[in-house]
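Q: Here's a chain of 84 amino acids. Please give me its 3D structure as tokens.
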Amino acid sequence: MHNYIMRTTITLDDDVHAFVDYYARARGLSLGAAIDELIRKAQTAPIPEPVELRRSPNGLPLLPRSGRTITSEMVKLLSEDDLG
């Protein structure tokens, strides 16, 4: 592995730049060091298991169970938020 600094120019979307800038400031890093750190974290992140999509008897796709029940009250509250 080489230990030299390579300079390059990259273009970031505004929201990505804002995130990296916030991340860098919160950790006392330069923007480049923050990008390095985030990329290294992404490289070592576990690869998620592929989700096998099942279908109901009528052919509709079934989502895997998450352990959380969604009630009609929760749906109603979210619907009201969208309208309001």
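Q: Can you summarize the key feature?
A: Residues 14-27 form the longest helix (14 residues).
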